[in-house]
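sorry for the late reply, my laptop died twice this morning and i had to redo everyting from scratch. anyway the thing you sent over, i finally got around to it. pasting the sequence first so we're on the same page, its 375 residues, then the predicted structure underneath. double check i copied it right bc i was rushing
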Amino acid sequence: MREVIVEADGGSRGNPGPAGYGAVVFADDHVRVLAERKEYVGVTTNNVAEYRGLIAGLEAATELGARVVTVRMDSKLVVEQMSGRWKIKHASMIPLAEQARRLVAGFDRVSFTWIPRAENSHADRLANEAMDDGALVGTVRESRAAGYMPGDQVAVGETAQGTYSPGWTGAIGRPTRLLLLRHGQTELSVQRRYSGRGNPPLTELGREQADRAAKMLAAKGDIAAVVSSPLQRARSTAEAAATALDVPLRILDGLIETDFGQWEGLTFAEAAQRDPALHADWLGDPSIPAPGGESFDQVRERIEGVRRDLVALYPGENIVVVSHVTPIKTLLQLALGVGPSLLYRLHLDLASLCIAEFYPDGGASVRLVNDTSYL
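ok and here's the structure:
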């Protein structure tokens, strides 16, 4: 993959207001769609959402192995700032612009072109779909805060299957049960290399693992949906599960793996040799990012948002969440209410299953960790 076209957009309903972004990567013929990204980003401004869309589009182009990128956006501000003709004055956009520039530096050539809104309809549609998701989340959260969900006929102490006992934890209500499935094997996992935002496919064994996990989940039944990280190894695993269960598949960008930056593709020993002091500090301090990458604290922040949205979107339901080592460990960390040491001490096998429950009253529990009995 040599040359691609990235179109991105962002918007907010109110400024600031509920915001989302969309990004699409076309082949150089401007016809074939190679990747799409969209995400609700909470309450923020149009400009922040537009930068987030640009970043998502550049990340997708990186995953596709592009070397030359043409960026087309209807945001005059983002195009002019990224072209170096306008200064960045708002503090909230400075780190976003820096993140975008780091991504730009990874390509051979990137150009920025302003286009009229009418020519950016694909990305605009994705951004509006993301904002629609946000509106749904907000409605559900407000209903939960008021103690009522439309169509909710189940009283405290009962479930659709019968009497519910909150157990010794004291948590009340029906939890949203997350069946946390790690993706199957890739070549990088075979070689035990840092595999973050890279996009290797599943190996033959990885596809077999995904199929076996899908059959296990289908046998369980009573699953409302499958949600997945956008990366190929997770999506392939999730598609197998969604097909076996005959339920919708939803892609959530927030479930993506940690960005390991310049350590991507290196082994533990190679990363430690390359940056010995930084690597040692990184292993003990979740606030320290990999060079050019993301810290575990940053991962936790976005995963907390994903957890809140999943509980709001699927109240009292069972859903399969297909993701990666760090996001799954972080969800377990949140359920257990423990510190970051869990990230370094817990082992998760490829295609393993964990189960965490999150209750409407804020309670949580972990029911299963690293099950591989079906493989």
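The mean pLDDT is 86.
thats about all i looked at so far, will dig more tmrw
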